[in-house]
Amino acid sequence: MKTLWLFIIIVTTSSAHNFLDIVKNYIHSPEKDEKFTSNSKYDFIIIGAGSAGSVLANRLSENKKWRILLLEAGYMPNFFNRIPIFVGYFQLTGYNWGYNIEPQKNACLGMKNRQCSWPRGRGLGGTSILNYMIHTRGNKFDYDQWASLGNGGWSYVDVLPYFKKSERFNVPGFKNSSYHNENGNLCVEHVPYHTKLATTFLNAGQELGYKIVDYNGQDQKGFSYIQVNINHGKRCTGATAYLEQINRPNLEIITGARVTKILIDADKRAYGVEYIKDTIWKNVTCSKEVLLSAGTIDSAKLLMLSGIGPKEHLEELNIPVIQDSKVGYNMYEHIGFLGLTFMVNQSESLLQSRLFNPKLFLEYLLYKRGPISIPGGAEALAFIRTKYAPDERPDVELLFVSGSLHSDNGQVLKRALRLSEDLYDAIYKPIEEQDAWSIWPIVQYPRSVGRLTLRSKDPFEPPKMDPNFFSHPADIEIILEGIKHAINISKTKAFQAYGSRLHDLKIPGCKQFEFASDDYWRCAIKHLPSMMNHEIGTVKMGPQTDTYAVVDPQLKVYGIKTLRVVDASIMPAIPSGHVNAGIYMIGEKAADMIKQSWKGELY
Question: Given pLDDT bands bounded at 50, 70 and 90, which one contains residue 174?
Fold first, then answer.
């Protein structure tokens, strides 16, 4: 308890910058984990303790006869990680791999060196320890599309049971629905506190003729408070949901273990992995399968380091080619626009100077409620169809934030997003300490496709990630339509009660255009894109007839025995919304497929 009171004193008497340094020092002192025997024999080795890897470790260890090894490069997050408002701070710590995309020609122009950041979690729980916890399944037709591409068993009817299996649903007004389950591992709730501006956003939607919906139920189109992976005000990660409550002797978890290679024998069978822990290199083997759950970036990277990837690319780097495969292609990401800020004349937004208040922290510590329970200001969303929507699926998400990029006085978001000093000082510094809210319009089915490659065969060097943002002009036009819808929302009676007005300082690189003209917005989108960190597809799932498919519908790597990939990298097409719910689903479904493959040895 003394630590908690000390924490309250620190955050209320220090500047945000000093507090960030304190937090970073605190979490850079992880406990060393248990002893390990390098000659141990396992049935399954799981690489990565993220959302999917945590599910696999839990479900496979249900079989008491199987010995499971879970390897994670990071460590267990601490108490502060559970506090939703601190999401931005943790992206500036060692719990983030710190990846940046390649300098872009048509995007990230307002970021340092034209590089946007791609935060990726490094710790038990993976990116679920860093994300904004928003839980969206996507549209049912997204998964029907997967099946239509030749992926039998992945239609909406097939995957819905696994979405339900994963969740412990506790959202008022939508419980007892046939679309949900109240007994799963993963907490899905509303944030326990909503600002008046978030409620106004929903009221504005109704004023415009939209319904308040359960977007994870029958109808996705409409407005809603966000459903989040929160357990009574505390972040619920893959590790807290699937690992924290189990203590099984047949499951061994080793943290601080960075896998550098998958071991593959002359018969092209994966039989173990090579990893480094505490500067010591180790090999460990398994009798059944190696399961790769390192995420869209690192799963593709590890496959290529192990000799599975595009032949020409691997040969360029002098990596022996074991399987010629289109690893690293088909990379998609939801992308949007950060620059819509609406000023208000009442003190209702989330300003950092107000949040760092002893009473608010005491309320949170005692009751797990209040504004400290809001994940970085994200409170509500809408899924809408623009004039470009090719079918009945919403093609734009409008993410409502009860603040803006200036709300922390440039201490965290500016650094996490890599905003240039010139842009921040021109647009956001003049409105520091002023109340505002934002909408981020996000394209749901981007057409710009990227590729991930290796820089070298050094396993410690980050890969080269080039998403080719806005290489297809349709993506900008769809976001532009989203901007127009967002501005219409600001003009409703609901928001005009707060005197909402569009912040109209021009982005420095767009001063040649008339403010709020279509050409201005096109320029602004390129300068201030929002990275949703939903990258998918680098280890594409598909039938053998698909030349870009790396894994089959059972998630087995083509050409390699006893190796599966289980994470967002296998998604053949990007679902709408936020992808983490889909990753839990993939983990649940994969666990059942693996059990079925070895059903003769169950229990």
Answer: confident
